[in-house]
Design goal:
alpha+beta; 12 strands; 20% strand; 11 helices; Jelly Rolls; disordered N terminus; seven-stranded antiparallel beta sheet; 2 domains; five-stranded antiparallel beta sheet
Length: 340
């Protein structure tokens, strides 16, 4: 199971992994581009690399890949790797076991600091931001999403969470991944490879299912936290006609898909909730005597409506009466401006 590469893949007798990619044989100024090309070809994902300033960028990656599994043992210098998501590309799951160094993982609207001994699961097709704060070592296993047999929505709790591996099935998986990294030759032996791969796949699936259920309460707390951030931001910017899911996502550094998903189980989708908040506040202001010097159009604009006709239609649909009737509710017209 030895692969060749026409450019700078070095092979070493006695290496634990089936082949080795390393940057040390490449000129310092060329390493980032060289690494981006190799990882794009190997993993089907393109990364933007920001090397650390403390030392030259350096990575060594040993790889074994008996289908459908890929196992790699990676040692590298501090750097930041940003991957832009592509929903139609490479639907695979990566399990990362951190052995040395610390890494901040940002993916699917979540952020976690991964310390040595911790495990994370990430989807290759989703955007991610991995910040390795110092020299590090990690062992990873990659499987197609279909091999896990887990529904997409079940990954919500698991993706991007930092999981301890000191007990339970996560500890068994961590020990097994270390063994595979230290003895990758077993994946090349026809007499044993199929059984070992099947065991590894089963262990990854069982860990994902078990640990995913365990982190659900924590994840719900995180979802509640982000929903609170979103609603507070939206309430503070109701006056902006351009307030949208895209605007909110960019301001809070959350993905658009994650923002939509946060409100799937709520009474109203996010922007329908924003509309209701705008209308309720406009209704309250219309009924206040001290707002009589403002026209209906001015009040509508103050709450993010740029089209008075649209405001009036939405207002009537929500409350069953017109903005003018709300202003006159139970009293004489207070000023001529109300008709404007």
């Amino acid at each position: 199971m030895v692969r060749s590469d026409p450019v700078n893949i070095t092979m070493h007798a006695g290496d634990n992994m089936a082949f080795l990619l390393e940057t040390d044989s490449v000129g310092t100024n060329d390493r980032v581009d060289w690494w981006r090309e190799r990882t794009a070809a190997l993993f089907g994902a393109e990364y933007s690399i920001d090397p650390g300033k403390e030392a030259p960028f350096s990575i060594a990656l040993g790889v074994a890949q008996p289908a459908p599994l890929m196992v790699f043992n990676c040692t590298g210098s501090a750097h930041r790797a940003i991957r832009k998501g592509d929903p139609g590309k490479n639907p695979a799951i990566v399990a990362h076991l951190q052995l040395q160094g610390h890494c901040t993982v940002r993916t699917e609207g979540k952020e976690a600091l991964v310390s040595p001994g911790m495990l994370t699961f990430n989807r290759v097709r989703e955007s991610s931001d991995l910040h390795f704060h110092e020299g590090y070592r990690q062992i990873c296993a990659i499987l197609p999403e279909s091999a896990f047999g887990i529904e997409s929505h079940d990954w919500t709790a698991l993706a991007g969470a930092a999981l301890p591996t000191d007990s339970g099935i996560a500890a068994v998986l961590a020990d097994h991944l270390r063994s595979l990294a230290n003895h990758p030759e077993v994946l090349d032996q026809e007499s044993s490879a199929a059984e070992i791969v099947a065991y590894t796949v089963g262990l990854l699936r069982a860990t994902a299912r078990t640990v995913g259920n365990q982190v659900t309460p924590e994840n719900r707390g995180l979802q509640s936290y982000h929903r609170g951030r979103i609603t507070r931001f939206a309430l503070a910017h109701l006056h902006l006609p351009g307030l949208s899911v895209e605007f909110i996502s960019a301001a809070l550094n959350l993905s658009i898909r994650y923002v939509h998903r946060l409100f799937e189980q709520e009474e109203l989708p996010l922007m329908r909730w924003v509309m209701r908040q705008r209308l309720e506040r406009a209704h309250e202001q219309l009924a206040q005597p001290d707002s009589c010097h403002l026209s209906i159009a001015q009040i509508a604009y103050a709450w993010g409506f740029s089209d008075q006709a649209h405001f009036s239609r939405s207002f009537r649909k929500e409350f069953g009466h017109s903005p003018r009737e709300a202003r006159n509710c139970g009293k004489e017209p207070c000023c001529a401006a109300q008709a404007s």
